[in-house]
Amino acid sequence: MHYQNGATSGGDDRNTTGCPFHSHASQPTYFSDVIASGKLTLAEVFTNFSEIMFAAADTTSNALCFILYLLATNPEVQARLREEVDEVVQNNGLNVNPVGKMNYLDSVIKETLRLYPLATMQCRILEEDIALAGYLVPKGTMFVMNHFAASRNPEVFEDPEEFRPERWIRDERNRMHHHPFAVMPFGYGKRTCLGKRFARMELHMAVAKIIHKFQVKPIESMPFDPVVRTILTPGDQVPVRFVDR
Ligand code: HEM
């Protein structure tokens, strides 16, 4: 991603990286505190670190890239989102509570995860026999659920390839009436994503902050080639640039 106009990078002596979003590089984190406490074995440190990096950081950061790409390539959606964000910021400032009440922002996130479910597939092994569509499926069978295909099923979603956050808004004309399990970006059941509320909050905050401060625009000369690297990612480059508002 590219940042145009460096106007925001000077004058902030907390910012050691030059990055317009990053101003707390040297502060201790929850994780560094836990390691320093000496209460975890080395094996536990490795397991927790890879879990946090993979399950939490990798997923949320790639989701953010997909959201920004879709906003950059759908300027009318971006404009409507900015109206909502600006109104909330004007009335309440930007913090977790009002941001959590932004319906359009919520629907932008849901629609992005419908088009780009980071876990494209998921497996479950049956603990008991079941009857499915008239067939007996025996205990021990492994089911592979293809979320990517299900999310774009034209029998469930009208114009499934189109980015239409309105599908998710109650009372809106285009609202979708789909099966509740047609889209499951965070999985479901006993092993559902442990961090889904946290991820939603992070994405709400990040998107609201970015959209309040910048316009995001596409870089037409750069390809957009999503690729699966265990999870679905936007590929090596995200063809989006940031322009100061
Ligand atoms: C957009 C962001 C995220 C997406 C799309 C996502 C998606 C998923 C999915 C599909 C699963 C498997 C669920 C299942 O098998 O039913 C999962 C599991 C998990 N996620 Fe997330 N996740 C996200 C962010 C996070 C965050 C921020 C955290 C931690 C703070 C987190 C922690 C976990 C953990 C620990 C599991 C394993 C749960 C278990 O096996 O019992 N995830 N996630």
From TrEMBL:
Question: Keywords assigned by UniProt?
Answer: Cholesterol metabolism, Heme, Iron, Lipid metabolism, Membrane, Metal-binding, Mitochondrion, Mitochondrion inner membrane, Monooxygenase, Oxidoreductase, Steroid metabolism, Steroidogenesis, Sterol metabolism, Transit peptide
InterPro entries this protein is in? CYP11_CYP27_families (IPR050479), Cyt_P450 (IPR001128), Cyt_P450_CS (IPR017972), Cyt_P450_E_grp-I (IPR002401), Cyt_P450_sf (IPR036396)
Pathway annotation:
Lipid metabolism; C21-steroid hormone metabolism
Q: Which GO terms describe its cellular component?
A: mitochondrial inner membrane
Domain of life per record: Eukaryota
Where is it localised?
A: Mitochondrion inner membrane
Q: Which GO terms describe its biological process?
A: C21-steroid hormone biosynthetic process; cellular response to peptide hormone stimulus; cholesterol metabolic process; cortisol metabolic process; glucocorticoid biosynthetic process
What molecular functions are annotated in GO for this chain? cholesterol monooxygenase (side-chain-cleaving) activity; heme binding; iron ion binding
Q: What is its main location?
A: mitochondrion
Which Enzyme Commission number(s) are on file for it?
1.14.15.6
A Pfam family (short name) is p450
Q: How is the protein disposed in the membrane?
A: Peripheral membrane protein
Q: Which residues make up the binding site for heme?
A: C193
The answer to whether UniProt assigns keyword Lipid metabolism to this entry is: yes
User: What's this protein's family per the entry?
Assistant: Belongs to the cytochrome P450 family.
For this entry, the protein name equals Cholesterol side-chain cleavage enzyme, mitochondrial
